[in-house]
Protein 1
Amino acid sequence: MTLLDALRERLGATAPKKGCDHGQCGSCTVLVDGRRAISCLVFAVAADGARITTAAGLGDGDALHPVAQAFQDDDAFQCGYCTPGQICSAVGMLDEVKAGAPSVIADDLDASPTLTDDEIRERMSGNLCRCAAYPNIVAAIGKAADR
């Protein structure tokens, strides 16, 4: 059983979505011990003992996570199907940037990453939006990074 199926079918977590079930769309992205993971490609048994965070678990009570708040403020979704995966991926990506992890488009692998729009697009390229809300998604992530 995949982590996605365990989350949805056994635990009732509806935030991660089954989009393609092949690891190509990112709708099922969750955080596994703080790192983003495509849950349809992870066996549930491999995540045994790990801390799994879905988009629903990112907030603090009634307060939205800063990335989720930026998505709301910037209208970074249309149908909303991909939004939980986009938000989890953005949170994980921003943590990667803070840790200094370079991307494939980095000019200097030893320099601290600069989060430009192109850098955000590259780092989020595994998350697809069928509604093409990308301009607002990129803007929301950029604003969340500044907060």
Note: Helices lie at 3-10, 66-73, 83-98, 117-123, 134-146.
Protein 2
Amino acid sequence: MLHTIFFLSSLLIISSHASVQDFCVGDLKAPEGPAGYSCKKPSLVTVDDFVFTGLRAAGNTSNIIKAAVSPAFAAQFPGVNGLGISVARLDLAPNGVIPMHTHPGASELLVVTQGSILAGFVSSANDVYLKKLKRGDVMLFPQGLLHFQINSAGVNSIAFVSFGSPSPGLQILDFALFANDLPSKLVEKTTFLDDATVKALKAVLGGTG
């Protein structure tokens, strides 16, 4: 009886291991679904699917926020597809800011590698967690919570951020309110801002209505 149980257990273990894939490199020619991209055929996978060089160069900070985010998500780095991880580079020129935003699909871990960054997040209880980070410091931003980063140095600041998802998602609060065609009267009603302020912000960020 014991031999039979051991044999059956061994078969279960072997079959469970046999069904586990080492990786699922994303097939970017296929549509992305809630579970990510379909897997590329193993015979087509190369080492380059597991290497990403796009974070070597600084992003273009010549914009309204004086900052740039260079992502290495599944859409840019198909090797992370299905593995629950991804990474990005943040470049902030002096006075640069990554505005209040959320990542609906992942928590974020930030590591400062150059300069200094003032970073913070707001909990669902509206408690504020704020810290000035220096080179080598690390800060965590829990999934789904509003957070931001501001260059607090007089020089370019750089950070690398990792996420607990290959596609963490992104929604920037200012753009959600003022960079679309949501009627100004609704924005005013829900934010308590006056008409002139709302229309001025829409003019800056490209919104209408």
Note: The longest helix spans residues 2-18.
Protein 3
Amino acid sequence: MDVILLERIAKLGQMGETVKVRDGFARNYLLPLGKALRANEANKKRFEAERSTLEARNLERKSEAQKVAEQLDGKSFVMVRSAGETGQLYGSVAARDIIEALSAEGFNIGRNQVELNTPIKAIGLHKVVLHLHAEVEIAIELNVARSADEAERQAKGESLTSADAIYGVDEDALKPEDFFDPEADQDGDEE
């Protein structure tokens, strides 16, 4: 199905372009959300008549998204979660959790604006990309830790999942000879 895009859509095209998309994508996503019109003569004339207002609205949305991006730039958000000794979370951090953390700080971001392909399942510092507008995206830092104290230590660059942090052992000082005698008979036969 050929459609006329009413806004820029990533990996598809710019506003005003006529593109060919699958019928289901057009019927279930583009047309109901008002992101496109069917490409026929009547809709082409309608688009040309409304082009200036659509461009103005798009520019306004982009400037609002740019302001939010400037406020978010360089921010780090702390998520306190239960985790095991190895740093594996007992649950996970999903897009919904990120939205809650952002709204607690006063940012109104939709769940579909968070690019998180898989949930976060380990403590540490994670980069999460937010698509605030088709032309504006920003990466925020998510500090997932077991406590606020651990989050501060992680922010300073300290690793909390290494043997040193967990057991108080220097990993570099450990050698295989510390655990077994290379001279000993390995197969267990007494000769």
Note: Helices lie at 23-30, 41-72, 95-104, 148-155, 163-167.
Protein 4
Amino acid sequence: MTQFALAELLTECIVKILALDTTSGACSVALYSGGQVCEQFVRAERDHTRRLLPMVDQVLADSGLSLSQLDALAVSRGPGSFTGLRIAISFTQGLAFAADKPVVPVSSLAALAAGARRSHPEWGDSPIVAMLDARMQQVYWGIYSAGAPHDSLLAEAVQDPDRVVQSLRESDLPQPAYGAGPGWHYPEFVDAPVAQCDMDTPIHAREIAELALPLWQNGAAVAAEELEPLYLRDEVTWQKRQKIRSK
């Protein structure tokens, strides 16, 4: 086998995943290929739809790959902004249909925690409580360990801040624990059992791509038409409607 043929074979064996995120106040696209990540990231509350395609084209060009050479796409499935989730998921579905590729849905809270762990190596393997603002005086939140970065130690939920604090106190959360994400801005969290909190931690597509790799290897990818966002808000909305009707 020639060196060229061997290099071509090794390239084909390397897993290549394109990831997208518009869950919160940022827009990012990343391509994972053989342990290397190429990412485009911009903080932007608006214009996600206009920004995504040029960012995808750029990371593909920088990586020297085409859409057809990918193994899968990955996207944050939520929870998060309703509009942001729909933009990322619809755009990912379009790419997946065009290239006939599967999609790996990744928790946006898990990606937030993974990004915080990368930004704060001093936090070590301590659990990270990831939190996004759900509006309506509520937050989306979950707790992630270094050993199981995909699965929250408590089920991901949308709750009032005071209920979150109560849940954290009752959970016997290993200490020290840390907080990450913009949802931590509520004053009720001053008494939360965390040693430090970084409210400026954004969600990056690079973490979505890296978290997607073992999920893809374990068969967690879905067809584009099966991709659905996770809002966590449906039950809460239904309960509020029931309360209004009962008055």
Note: The first strand starts at residue 16 and ends at 21.
